[in-house]
Design brief:
The structure holds 2 protein chains of 2 kinds. Chain A has 14 helices and 2 strands, in the order αααααβααααβααααα. By secondary structure, chain A is mainly alpha-helical. Chain A has a two-stranded antiparallel sheet. In chain A, helix 3 runs parallel beside helix 5. The longest helix of chain A has 27 residues. In chain B, strand 11 and strand 12 form a beta hairpin.
């Protein structure tokens, strides 16, 4: 990372750290959402952006992570800090099962993507019938008016959740930067570019693809736990739905797949501009339901046509920082 | 439940135009303007997969300021927000509305979104009146600022089943067997479980379910399922459906010449919707849905109906009735509380909402009174039968617009 990139990143971090001091609750909630999608997008990016494995069913790990920690909290009184590790382990086991099935039997590309969708879908159906987690009626975490922080149970005011997701997003960025420059990172990129060539060079592609799936699923499980304790209600129909998987991947696609800052930028662009356009229309007294979805479509179209590598690579070049 | 005098349409149109007449009809009496507006944040899923229903609910919100001004003399400013059928958006939009100065929030036709908004409302201490959302835990959380004027899922199922018993008693017909068909999505599964658990405990239902058939709500063909149901030779069809599958299923029944005593839904959408009547014509008649409904006999319903027709001249109130009724009432509750509290202070508003006692209402049920948990307990369902292409209340008798027809014409026994 060059000095200019360090300076910009430091400035951004400083602004984000000071945000709750001067921003309204609305801005904090939007910022929380951006960071949530940045973190989850980063997790997906490990699998697709780094290792080239397209998952369209990442809602599986969000959902399972969320349900495991929330159900342990609601039904067994086990706090989220322990629940988090159980959620990570369960999601890693699921990721391992999917990865093993796919990579052992040579399932790749769109077929791998279909497999990930299938897992998310039948898990949704399973949770619809699992009464321990509330079934289709949903699982609700107890909420009260809280101004005091209860870190042990991860309950508190919006600023607490904001700082938690900021720490997660910053941590994920650092982890991914380190991973990308590690041996595994170089192997992933080799696999992404040409798996057969990578194999011919002696890379154990099965092992490293599994490694990517495990890291990605573990990170996404953390995002699920955050989701559960932030929103306090879970419905299989919503959390496992393919639209949630698509939401997760839109940020990295818009920002730049395989880049470090792409998922963060993509989440920022989509959330802020979508909210901004709604606000702008409201300012002129125009109420158009669904404008956000249309906007998403237009941005996607624009990015695919004019910035096929995402916004970040060309922006990074312009402002003189590395990828 | 009180019933209003039988006013003609012309009288009601006049009444709507004249505030004095309206005030005389209303139990609230003439109110003095309070000098300040009540800002109501309306959160509805006006886009996304619930967009159609959200837009239907919005019609109830849109007519509320005019009607309530006439009724209570309260000025209301609506602040509309689209939740996009997404819990993340519901939460941020709620934050936004509060920041913009909403004194009370209403909405959002979805339990997940309701739960997300409830947290924001509770955290920020702003009253939130839920129009439609049935998940029981929402009002089991010990919230102080969250109120719901809609039956819980348990009440919905119980009301729907007990109306079947009332229907049999009223028509003096006692079917002994039923074939139960239901969609296999989340809603259908939940209804199946609820009905299976409750049915044995309801003593006035003398029938047995001989066959249960689940099917995909997105199915393009239900030939096999209908053949199987017909072969069960049951007296009537107990159906939990959605719109498209209900149309396909009914057409298939006609095709296979299956004429049971009736088609009864204990509490699902589909058969009372406009598209069902439009597509099926006469074949859509006599189908019965037990659902939360508006009370066509109430004075306020007629006023709301008139306002609806004025705002939506090309649409029929009956096809939006439930959505409009409950959304309108949620704003009415807020306005009534504002009038009594004489303040927009959130705590004063919440305290006033807790003391609500509205007897003249649009939705079917007892007075709007909140229990300690913030839940209205007396909301009822109606037995709604399609007659001449129009969903018509046939039970309870106090609200009935026509007599129930059961068995359906064409039933050969």
């Amino acid at each position: 990372m060059n000095p200019r990139a360090r300076l910009l990143l430091g400035a951004l971090l400083a602004v984000l750290l000071l945000l709750p001091a001067f921003a309204s609750n609305y801005v904090i909630s939007v910022a929380t959402l951006i960071l949530y999608f940045a973190f989850t997008g980063q997790a997906w990016n490990v699998m697709m952006g780094f290792a080239g494995q397209l998952s369209l069913g990442h809602s599986l790990y969000v959902g399972v992570g969320a349900y495991v920690a929330a159900a342990m909290f609601v039904n067994l009184g086990i706090g989220p800090w322990l629940g988090l590790w159980v959620a990570i382990l369960v999601c890693m086991a699921l990721g391992a099962a999917i990865g093993f099935l796919a990579f052992r039997f040579g399932i790749s590309g769109v077929y791998f993507a279909l497999l990930t969708i299938a897992f998310a879908e039948f898990t949704r159906v399973g949770f619809d019938h699992l009464q321990w987690t509330g079934g289709s009626g949903g699982l609700f975490l107890k909420v009260a008016q809280r101004e005091q922080m209860d870190l042990l149970n991860f309950r508190g005011p919006p600023a607490m959740y904001y700082y938690a997701i900021l720490a997660l997003a910053a941590g994920a960025l650092a982890l991914c930067a380190w991973l990308l420059r590690s041996r595994a990172g170089y192997y992933w990129q080799a696999i992404r570019e040409n798996e057969e060539a990578a194999q011919a060079l002696g890379i154990n592609t099965f092992r490293y693809k599994m490694f990517a799936v495990l890291i990605s699923s573990a990170m996404t499980a953390v995002s699920g736990v955050f989701f559960a304790f932030y929103y306090n209600n879970l419905f299989p129909e919503q959390i496992f739905h393919i639209s949630r998987s698509i939401e997760i991947i839109l940020g990295p696609i818009i920002g730049g797949i395989g880049t470090l800052f792409g998922p963060v930028l993509g989440a920022f662009v989509l959330t802020v501009l979508a909210d901004g356009i709604t606000e702008l229309l409201a300012l002129f007294g125009v109420e158009v339901p669904g404008v956000k979805q249309v906007f998403y479509g237009v941005v996607l179209l624009g990015v695919v046509m004019f910035l096929p590598n995402g916004i970040w690579p060309s922006l990074a070049k312009k402002i003189g920082v590395g990828k | 439940m009180s019933q209003g005098p039988g006013f003609t349409r012309r009288q009601f149109n006049t009444a709507l135009a004249a505030s004095g007449t309206l005030a005389a009809l209303s139990p609230f009496g003439i109110a003095r303007g309070q000098g300040s507006k009540l800002k109501v944040g309306v959160l509805l899923p006006r886009s996304g997969f619930q967009g159609f229903i959200g837009q239907s609910c919005q019609k109830g919100a849109d007519l509320a300021p005019g009607v309530i001004k006439q009724l209570l003399g309260v000025d209301i400013e609506l602040m509309n927000a689209d939740t996009e059928t997404n819990v993340d958006t519901a939460r941020t939009r709620a934050e936004r509305l509060i920041q913009e100065g909403a004194h009370v929030l209403v909405g959002p036709f979805d339990s997940g979104a309701a739960s997300a908004i409830a947290q924001v409302a509770e955290q920020r201490g702003v009253p939130f009146v839920i129009n439609i959302a049935a998940a029981p835990p929402i009002t089991e959380q010990g919230y102080k600022f969250v109120f719901r004027n809609f039956p819980t899922a348990i009440d919905l199922t119980r009301n729907g089943l007990s109306l079947i018993g009332d229907l049999f008693r009223e028509t003096k017909v006692a079917p002994r067997t039923a074939v139960f068909m239901h969609v296999n999505d989340t809603f259908g599964q939940a209804m199946f479980k609820g009905i299976s658990a409750m049915l044995p405990g309801i003593t006035n239902l003398p029938f047995k379910i001989t066959e249960t058939i689940s099917y995909d709500p997105a199915a393009k063909d239900l030939t096999v399922e209908v053949s199987k149901a017909k072969a069960a030779n049951a007296d009537f069809l107990l159906l939990v459906c959605r719109l498209n599958d209900a149309i396909i299923l009914r057409r298939e029944m006609v095709k296979q010449r299956w004429n049971p005593m009736g088609i009864i839904s204990p509490g699902s959408p589909g058969m009372y919707e406009e598209q069902f009547a439009k597509v099926l014509g006469k074949n859509g008649d006599y189908c019965i849905s037990n659902a939360p409904w508006f009370n066509p006999k109430m004075n306020l319903t007629k006023v709301v109906d008139a306002a609806f027709r004025k705002q939506n001249p090309k649409e029929q109130f009956v096809f939006h009735g439930t959505n409009v009724a409950y959304t309108f009432e949620s704003i009415l509750i807020a306005a009534d509380a504002f009038k009594r509290a004489k303040s927009t202070d959130p705590k004063a508003l919440a305290d006033a909402i807790r003391q609500t006692n509205i007897t003249d209402r649009v939705a079917l049920g007892g007075p709007i009174k909140f229990n300690a948990k913030g839940q209205v307990e007396g909301n009822l369902s109606a037995c709604v039968q399609n007659l001449n292409g129009r969903p018509t209340v046939v039970l309870p008798l106090a609200a009935a617009e026509a007599k129930a027809v059961f068995p359906m014409p064409g039933y050969k026994g």
